[in-house]
Amino acid sequence: MPEMARVLENRRESPWTHTLFFDREVKCAPGQFMMVWLPRLGEKPFTLSYPNAITVKRAGPFTEQLAALEPGDPIGLRGPLGRGYPLMRRPALIGGGVGIAELRLLALASEKPIFVLGGRTAEEILFHEEFRKLGPVHVATEDGSLGAQGLVTSLLPVQAPAYAVCGPERMMAACLDLLPPERTYLAIERYMKCAVGLCGQCTCSGWRVCVDGPVFPGTWVREMEDFGRRRRAKSGRWEPV
Amino acid sequence: MPEMARVLENRRESPWTHTLFFDREVKCAPGQFMMVWLPRLGEKPFTLSYPNAITVKRAGPFTEQLAALEPGDPIGLRGPLGRGYPLMRRPALIGGGVGIAELRLLALASEKPIFVLGGRTAEEILFHEEFRKLGPVHVATEDGSLGAQGLVTSLLPVQAPAYAVCGPERMMAACLDLLPPERTYLAIERYMKCAVGLCGQCTCSGWRVCVDGPVFPGTWVREMEDFGRRRRAKSGRWEPV
Amino acid sequence: MRPLPRIDPPLVNASGILSYPEVFAAFEKAGACLGGYVTKSVGPVEKAGNDNPVVVYSAEGGAPVLNSLALPTQSPEDWEKDLASLRLQRSRLIVSIYGGTPGEFARVAERMAPYADAIEVNLGCPNKVPGEQTIMESIGQSPAVSGEVMRLVRGACEKPLIAKLSPNSDYLAVAEACLAAGADALGCGNTLGPGLAIDLTSRKPILAGTTGGISGPALKPINLRMTYEAYARFQCPIVAYGGIATWRDAAEYTMAGACVLGIGTAFLGKGTRESAGLTRAIWEGVVAYLDGRPFPDLVGEAHRLPAPDLTHA
Amino acid sequence: MRPLPRIDPPLVNASGILSYPEVFAAFEKAGACLGGYVTKSVGPVEKAGNDNPVVVYSAEGGAPVLNSLALPTQSPEDWEKDLASLRLQRSRLIVSIYGGTPGEFARVAERMAPYADAIEVNLGCPNKVPGEQTIMESIGQSPAVSGEVMRLVRGACEKPLIAKLSPNSDYLAVAEACLAAGADALGCGNTLGPGLAIDLTSRKPILAGTTGGISGPALKPINLRMTYEAYARFQCPIVAYGGIATWRDAAEYTMAGACVLGIGTAFLGKGTRESAGLTRAIWEGVVAYLDGRPFPDLVGEAHRLPAPDLTHA
Ligand SMILES: Cc1cc2nc3c(=O)[nH]c(=O)nc-3n(C[C@H](O)[C@H](O)[C@H](O)COP(=O)(O)OP(=O)(O)OC[C@H]3O[C@@H](n4cnc5c(N)ncnc54)[C@H](O)[C@@H]3O)c2cc1C
Ligand SMILES: Cc1cc2nc3c(=O)[nH]c(=O)nc-3n(C[C@H](O)[C@H](O)[C@H](O)COP(=O)(O)OP(=O)(O)OC[C@H]3O[C@@H](n4cnc5c(N)ncnc54)[C@H](O)[C@@H]3O)c2cc1C
Ligand SMILES: Cc1cc2nc3c(=O)[nH]c(=O)nc-3n(C[C@H](O)[C@H](O)[C@H](O)COP(=O)(O)O)c2cc1C
Ligand SMILES: Cc1cc2nc3c(=O)[nH]c(=O)nc-3n(C[C@H](O)[C@H](O)[C@H](O)COP(=O)(O)O)c2cc1C
Ligand code: FES
Ligand code: FES
User: Fold this and answer.
1) Of C167, C126, C124, which Cα lies nearest the Cα of C146?
2) pTM score of the predicted model
């Protein structure tokens, strides 16, 4: 049952990205997500970036509507859902695009994290200032507007006892090739319907991302033939990632 | 949902009375009751005389079947139900017939109880020995086989800070006339169906005995015009008590 | 159409719950926030109903509640005596009736009408005594028979008539027949099913009547939909029953189209004072939700509101 | 009548739950105690189904679960590819199918039969996309149409056929028509209702499809009764679905007459390992309850046992 909350603040983080604060704190593990409902418009998954906020990248009609919400607007919340990250010491948090926001709560919960962040331009490197207070931050941008020029993989490998990766699936696949899978965790995205493990819609090689993930150990992901390759569209039809 | 238990022991207390022990302890207040179910035979109310036993007087087909149970036999239990007695200091516990058994748990929970017990013959004075260890016991029997000859009312009034009365309804009505209602509690019996306050079957002047009672303060009972007079039969028709 | 009597606050008990006049009086005295009381269904001849057990419920709550009382009733004469002696201070009295034939419905209605502010016609109870022959099982399934019942009842009494529907039927067709035959309001609705529960020790059905009608939270989405559909189709007054236990449930039913809300299974396990407190909590919650608007404004609101403009975009 | 394939242990998932072959393989690998897997219902043409939200449930559990996926499906060709690549080690595969017309049912059945150990024919889903015209809503209400579907499906494939009934219908009549037309077993049954839930903030129905079929504990007494009645009438193999979450539920359904037990909503919120654990716990509980007897002994036992002689009197 979605519970209605109210928007407290819509904070613009970049030209494409907004953090939506709501008037309810969710007890969650870093990496868990909410199904966010706008009546008549839809219900879609977003990872908590604060106990009372999600950070949304405008990607289509639903996220456009989310990005246009104003304080006081109602917003439906269902969750927290799924499994988040385990607690890690001195992890390297590797984020790409809006995936950087999905690492924020993990960064705050981790002991001495280091950051490896990538994006198209400087504006995509979310929470840059905040993360610098928590530990060293390495950045790569495609246009070179911040940090090194290039992809986030160009900053790898970095030495760390554990790794958490969140970003576009192909980026994550490339990272996983460069990291020790037994010490790496990745957050997978799939199209979600029920979000509670019933419908099977969100399968990645048979794991249901909504209940078995979204965060998976790298060793499991290595075994997932579908990872980086294909996912099921709304009808169940396979489509490439 | 009745839960099935097994009979541990069927202890004959008198020619008409049996205590049935079962393999489940019920967390209850003294005076609370169970709906006891024998599949295909019926389900009827009985007050707990031990946390894991009821004491049954043979009164008709159902109680005859109960009295014939043997160790190992299944017995369905639903409860504890209703409201029991408040805790009392130095109460006088006034019991008649099988109502004496319904006072047993209260006797054990009370500080320095005294007992005023009545019955037709000595055999009806249940738990006599046990009660004598707890406090003074006054007895009246109709045939004079134990204690004074006569009705329990012939032993009243006794001085006590509080009174609990349990027995045949006309006996209780007679006692209430002799006791201070604001310090007296009585356990009322009515025909029960749902036993959870839904059907209204067990009404005594509008109070539903299964949820408002079976134990009521004397002040309320004083106001009950139906008490000692009439009750609803299985169809809802009034019948005299 | 006769208007329903003013039931204020618009809360009642469900038929077969509390059941008897003296219980209503006790509830009123205890400060229950019920603008009306509904009797147990009065039948044409005295009947004891099923043997115990007559209810199955789980102690944890939430799960379906099954009952199979199978319409016990004292005789209409005895009901007359009971109702004649009832003195409610502020609340209305609704007498629920049933029969074994359409003519019997009418005869019971005629006898009860003098005591009633409205008559609720019970058009379907899924429970019966094993082996019993009764049209109560099937009546609510047939628009023709239900319409005939309502026509005869309409002819036999002048009081507002509530046709209480069964969710186990093509209820919109039944409702249409009833409204055409003179019903003034719909009751949405009776219990569902019936359902079955089997005991694992005796390996037999638990209820003496084998199966039992389902009430409580499990019934709510079904009767809420019935209310919603009936309101959309007929825009008539609706008395809603089914799992109403909180002000939220009451608000949902009201927005779906109910103008009177009935409480039944939610009283399970609650004494008179606690029950009265429950009715007050429900009504206070609805009033807070109304936020100053009059209650009738909320009735059917889910049908009227446009998709909310959430975005101000 | 063709016997059902040997499903050992006699547990399966319910159709639309887990849904896809790769999920079945993952469950098998994780040690799930399911002797068979049932696909999402395969339809005649690709369909996306309803927009989100598609489920309503209460976090506390127990309360009704509503869903309105409205039968999304990839195309039969895509299903063929999926099923061709499935390698189950020990478990059987049941393909669930539906159609927009009786002929479409048959065409889908024909294409799926090569991959299936049995075909389950979905005779009634209460959910649809708003505005959609589909016989799926009403098909299970009509013995004639259901029988026609079954006759054509029977003609199109040789595999054992399970007719999955809707509880929202005169299911015994539908079952009779289906068995006469060649069904080998009954599925008891699909979701109930549908039911409605209204959101108190937007004041509109929550589900994008407005209403949703009810599953989970709220459905159990209804489908248990369906199983009991169907077994009493037909003594045919029955695959039971509806609120099975513990070994007790499984034992009740078995004694009512089911020889295969389907698990659906009970997987809500459970990951693969936890789900596999649930299936093991259910089966181990049933085995303990059997106390050495073979499972088929228990099937329908509630119909055979005499009233227990409790008294030795
Ligand atoms: C576990 C999880 C966590 C996520 N966390 C975030 C987050 O914190 N911030 C963020 O900006 N985005 C997040 N996403 C992605 C986000 O859900 C989609 O961007 C969003 O649904 C797009 O919807 P749209 O209508 O705006 O775009 P559309 O035009 O519908 O689609 C754009 C993309 O989003 C995907 N998408 C659409 N609907 C869904 C759905 N129901 N479930 C999953 N994916 C969908 C599509 O596959 C497509 O690739 C997350 C996704 C998942 C699965
Ligand atoms: C709250 C309560 C607690 C009770 N505790 C005890 C107890 O501890 N020990 C004990 O021996 N008896 C107790 N009784 C009485 C006991 O329930 C009846 O004696 C028993 O039900 C008789 O059933 P029967 O079939 O043997 O007799 P029947 O021939 O059916 O009836 C004998 C008497 O029992 C009454 N009775 C029958 N069925 C019911 C019913 N469903 N509910 C209530 N009364 C019924 C009848 O009114 C009649 O007066 C209690 C009753 C109530 C209401
Ligand atoms: C114990 C019990 C007895 C009932 N008896 C009747 C009855 O006599 N007449 C009737 O119309 N409905 C009867 N009903 C149905 C209720 O009036 C109501 O329609 C139904 O229980 C749904 O409401 P609820 O979920 O709030 O209980 C009975 C229900 C219960 C639980
Ligand atoms: C999310 C969901 C999707 C379903 N999809 C289908 C389906 O595609 N075909 C079908 O025959 N039944 C479908 N059903 C019904 C189930 O197969 C099952 O009959 C019903 O849910 C009762 O079982 P349960 O209470 O264990 O869930 C679906 C049920 C749910 C909850
Ligand atoms: S979205 Fe339904 S199983 Fe994950
Ligand atoms: S027995 Fe039903 S209300 Fe007391």
Assistant:
1) C124
2) 0.96
